[in-house]
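Entry:
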Amino acid sequence: MKIKAIALDLDGTLLTSDKKISDINKEVLKYLENKGVKIFIVTGRTYISAKPFAQELGIDSSIIAYNGAKVINYKNDELIFNLPLEEKYSKKIIKMAKEKGFHVNLYQNNKWFVEELDNDETRHYANHTGLTPVKKSFDSFDDYSMTKITIQNMENSKEFNEFCDEIKDVLGNDVYTAKSQSFLFEVLNKNVNKGLVLEKVLKSYGISTEECVAFGDANNDLEMLTTVKYGVAMGNSDIELKRQVNYVTDTNDNNGVAKFLKKYFF
């Protein structure tokens, strides 16, 4: 098999549980890049949070951030693509979540906004991403066209999952929703998901989805893994994701990315 591109989710995929890129993953990716293969980071993280990993890998291609809501050339920080949520949906989601008492994260202009700094959700997300939260009343924005909104519940309670279903029922196809972690429910513009945007980015490089292998571990990776010819679920993925893709590799902590690439593309 021959490929021209590799698309990589970060958390639970390329990164180990302690948020590192293993030496073997770096070596294998560098080898393939030197052979002319383009490497793309495709993540639900913010651009600022994803950029250090692109720098560590030394890749020269665009970063697909916020599950595809933004595409940025990290070499010069040039914004290539941006498709935020419409204001009416942002306001509706914020209102619904606050009425139920769930923690809300807002993302706009490469900033992460919260109303409460001292709670488990904010502390966990800050540790998880390395980002610094900005405290702001959600009633005080002049512009409510958010890049992304996430609803967070560290207990992953029954009530939280019922609320996620309620968002889907109320807003339906007006927005795109996915769980990137068991405790994190993401809402974006309806025309955004990793698969749709990756296909556009690949096309801009003259690469087809038939020439791409993609790796992911979560529900928000499904569209990406089913868009490309070689969609690979990590060994630590949810069983439902594994059932819907063509390939499964080892876990993120056991160099699953490198093992698959070495087996099929070396």
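The chain has two domains: 5-82+192-265, 87-189.
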